[in-house]
Amino acid sequence: METLWEKVKKGFILVVEKTDELTKIGKLKLNIVGIHRKINQNFEELGGKIYALTKTGKRKKPVTDDANVQKLIKRIKQLEKDLAMEEKQLNNLIKKS
Length: 97
Description:
It contains 2 helices and no strands. By secondary structure, it is mostly helical. It has a domain of about 60 residues. Helix 1 packs antiparallel against helix 2.
């Protein structure tokens, strides 16, 4: 038969484990929000660059040939990969708990 102390100890361990899980979930959610914000900022910057490149209407080359535009597109793609990875980790943690 379990003593009161053993029951309290098991309960305490369970609380600590659950708190750790919830902390990890919270951190992942914050990371996801931060990545979404960075993606939106990069899209805004990309739109501004494209507008600046095309506003005169005299541009002969496609805007995708511009080095700054390519850099922003590459950055957005990497952020989207980071986002997918964070969301996958979050889903795995939620399923586990």
